Structures are given as C-alpha cells and as structure tokens.
Amino acid sequence: EHLQTLDAASAIAAEELDSALQRALGISSAIEEGGYGISRPRAECDEALARIADNDPAISNITLINAYGQIECSVLPPPEEGDVPADRALFERLRNGDETGVSRVVFGPMSKRPILIAARRRGTPDNFAGYIGIAIDIDAATTRLQEDLLPEGATLALWDPDGIFTITQTAEPLPFDRIPEPYLNELVSADVTQIVHDAEFADGALLL
Predict the structure, then answer these.
(1) How far is CA 168 from its chain centroid?
(2) How high is the mean pLDDT of the chain?
(3) Which of 14, 74, 161, 192 has its CB 3.0 to 4.6 Å from that of 63, i.e. a possible disulfide?
(4) Taking a C-beta distance cutoff of 8 angstroms, is the pair 132, 122 a contact?
C-alpha cells in the first residue's frame, strides 16, 4: 500500500508540473498575440504581466527577453548581476529556431527558488526577437500534492540528467546529490515507474 501511494504521488507530481507548463505556454501565446512590450512604457508592461501572473499561483515570474538576452519587461525586479538568461541553453535553442521550449530545473535569479521556465520564441522565423519566459515555481505547482497526498517521511524531488533538486520544503535532505549513472540510465529508458532500493546508494530508502 505504501508503494502504491508513492507511485500515485509521483504520477500526480508529473501531471501537476506538466499541467502548469502547458498553462504557461498557453499564456505565452496570448502574450505574444497581444503585443506586450511593443511601444509600451516599461512600468506599464511590468504591471500588465503582473496582473497575468496573479491569476496562476504556480507562476513566479513572467519576463520578456529581447534578442540580446536583455530583460524588456518583468514581474519581478531584474537580478543585480544583469540580464543574463536564467537558462542559456534554452535561449540558444529558441534563437536557433525552436518555437517553444522548457528549461531544465534552474535556480531563478529573480525569484530565488527552483523553477522551470516555459518559453515561447518572439519574432519571425527569419528574425529572432527574443522570447517570453514564464517561470513555474516547482514547489508552488505541487503544493496540493505535498500537503494532502505525500506520505509522511517521503521527499518529493525532481531530477534531470544532471542531478536532483529537492522540492518538498519541510522534508529532510536527500541522502545523495546525484542519481548514479547506472540507475539514471534505467530510469530514463523506463516506460513505467521504477523502484530502486539500494542501501549503499540511497541509505536504505526507496526511490521511485
């Protein structure tokens, strides 16, 4: 029963994050069609984006980035270190022609929290004008799961090919920093939930 609960929780977490990302991409399309940032004073643009972000608790920030990686409008104040995109690889993919993209887990330079960025290219196929970036606060996007469905003692984490980010705010830290490559390869290639139980790797814990 405990394993079934964990299996269900991991599936719900994935669904909630996917749903938040799809909502964000839909919002970015509406922003692009609405011509935000074009001939608007910066303060007016910032306020308009803030009103949009207020409608979705999973959104921590919305930014309009130009072709040079500079912030044109933003819900949150720009970082002190400048306008460098939070995920440079995502910026490059969009500049090279991708219409939309999702970042890896990054630490938001403005929200100061782990986020995923749903982005939509601005401009035409021949003229890259930057992108619309919508930051999804991972913890906020999975609040219902963590408060109501996650079993006591369980830690909800989101991993990518480079490591693990713990996102349950009240949980104990994970007993490892990265998933060892053999396990990672098995998890990436699996079509169903995989259960790893290795005393040396995970301190006797279960990893789904």
Answers:
(1) 15
(2) 81
(3) 74
(4) yes
Q: Express each pLDDT in 130-159 by its tens digit.
A: 999 999 998 888 877 777 777 777 777 777
Q: How far is CA 113 from CA 44, 75, 135, 165, 169, in A?
A: 26, 15, 10, 11, 11
Tell me the C-alpha distance between 208 and 4, whole Å. 11
d(CA 29, CA 150) in angstroms, rounded, equals: 33
Per the CB < 8 A criterion, the answer to whether 117 and 86 are in contact is yes
Question: What dihedral angle (degrees, nearest 10) is formed by the CA atoms of 187, 193, 195, 196?
Answer: 10
Query: Token digits for 206?
Result: 């279960």
Say if residues 170 and 148 touch (Cβ distance below 8 Å).
Answer: no
Calculate Rg over the CA atoms of the chain: 19
